Amino acid sequence: MDLNSTHSNNTTIPVNGTIPVSSTLATSTTPFENPLPANTSGDRKPIALWPGMYHSPVTTALWEARTKIFERLLDPPRDAPPQSELLTKTPSQSRTSILYNFSSDFVLREQYRDPWNDVRIGKLLEDLDALAGTISVKHCSDEDSTTRPLILVTASVDKIVLKKPISVDIDLTIVGSVIWVGRSSIEIQLEVTQSKRENSDSDSVVLTANFIFVARDSETGKAAPVNRLSPETAREKLLYEQAEARNNLKKRKRVGEKKDHENAEEKKLRDLLAEGRIFCDMPALADRDSILLRDTSLENSLICHPQQRNIHGRIFGGFLMNRAFELAFSTAYAFAGLVPYFLEVDHVDFLRPVDVGDFLRLKSCVLYTELHDPDQPLINVEVVAHVTRPELRSSEVSNTFHFTFTVRPEAKAMKNGFKLRNVVPTTEEEARRILERIDADNLNEFFRT
């Protein structure tokens, strides 16, 4: 689970300050190495050379802002006691914003540009994960350098929703803060804003994201209590209540409310499998507007390298999200035959850590399609990350991602009579995965309304 963990401690980030993001290709005699910050001494290594950090424009800016934390982590205090007193903090105390100067920084703009002149969603997912980690540090800090720091672990991504296209030519801002806390878990909400036009004064929210972090004792590895949260404004109180309701519903579902729906679920299961049996037993009579789930699959494999690790030696969670998104995008592209358009990331669980040297296999498929709205047909793609150990003949799931795409309107307009195919399972396990995802999507729709 320790995919994007960081220690809480004192931080140098201003409470309401905005952290500017610069391109990682600095203009200097060594173009691929960030220069020393102006306020540092010559005997300190530049952040670009610090070990155990996954570098991107945003991660570099954030780590520069919390330099003292990371310098102390490289030489942690010995025999320090754990945090003894919990503080009460407000959302404003953890609020952090970062600014992308796309309009004036050409190199930064090119680092984030996709083929359709929008922002690369995969890179943005990396940045959201990094910023959420910073915010968790700010909230969980006990402001006492003599105590043992906590480890904050990315437990899950609750939801990431794209509301509007994100242009790469206009400045972009991400603002986030803690909106809810439990005993050892915290929820962080991030909002990405961008003006409609380059010289416009009004900004609109183009993307929202919710991350769940849990706190661990750095010595025992057990769950540790986190600072309390006291929402102040009406909006902060509303966000807290909504997060509390989501958390309570998850707890009830874990206890086992599913029994009331078992009969209905079994009927849906049989209906889904009926068409799959026709494909297997009488393929000539199968519906030509359908396709077997297994025939939508793609796979990608990689070895995890030291350059992709975080400060604790585990692979950076944002890097995994980026790779999963790229595979999901390719899967939707190959399935639809038209350029996909990203809509949202549903709940992502970080089940086990990914370490340097791990053999990671990413397997994707189209779980199901929704064709109710012909103007915006939906493609639901699942990506499962497996940590594979050939020498031990073992394979464990580390992450499961669910992405929703439609097709780009301009691409759809070029193809008359375009229609997505229905996805059909052939096994009970595939059918159950589809039903679970449909139920989760219906639940999310309930919360949105």
Structure description:
With 449 residues, this protein is an alpha+beta fold. Helices cover 30% and strands 27% of the residues. The chain has helices at residues 57-65, 67-74, 91-94, 106-112, 121-140, 234-255, 262-281, 317-336, 409-413, 428-448; strands spanning 6-7, 18-21, 88-89, 96-100, 150-162, 172-181, 185-195, 203-217, 228-229, 290-292, 298-303, 340-345, 348-350, 359-370, 378-389, 394-407, 422-424. Strands 1, 2, 4, 5, 6, 7, 8, 11, 12, 13, 14, 15 and 16 form a 13-stranded mixed beta sheet that branches. A hairpin with a 4-residue loop joins strand 15 (378-389) and strand 16. Helix 5 packs antiparallel against helix 8 and helix 7 crosses helix 10. It is globular and about 70 Å long.
Short overview:
The protein is α+β, with helices and mostly antiparallel strands.
The main sheet comes to: 13 strands, mixed
Estimated structural class: alpha+beta
**Helix and strand pattern:** EEHHEHEHHEEEEEHHEEHEEEEEHEH
Shape designation:
globular
Low-confidence stretches: 8-15, 26-42
Keywords:
449 residues; alpha+beta; 13-stranded mixed sheet; two-stranded parallel ribbon; 27% strand; globular
Topology summary:
Elements: E1 6-7, E2 18-21, H1 57-65, H2 67-74, E3 88-89, H3 91-94, E4 96-100, H4 106-112, H5 121-140, E5 150-162, E6 172-181, E7 185-195, E8 203-217, E9 228-229, H6 234-255, H7 262-281, E10 290-292, E11 298-303, H8 317-336, E12 340-345, E13 348-350, E14 359-370, E15 378-389, E16 394-407, H9 409-413, E17 422-424, H10 428-448
Parallel strand pairs: 2-4, 3-9, 10-17
Antiparallel strand pairs: 1-5, 4-6, 5-8, 5-12, 5-13, 6-7, 7-8, 11-14, 12-16, 13-16, 14-15, 15-16
Helix pairs in contact: 5-8, 7-10
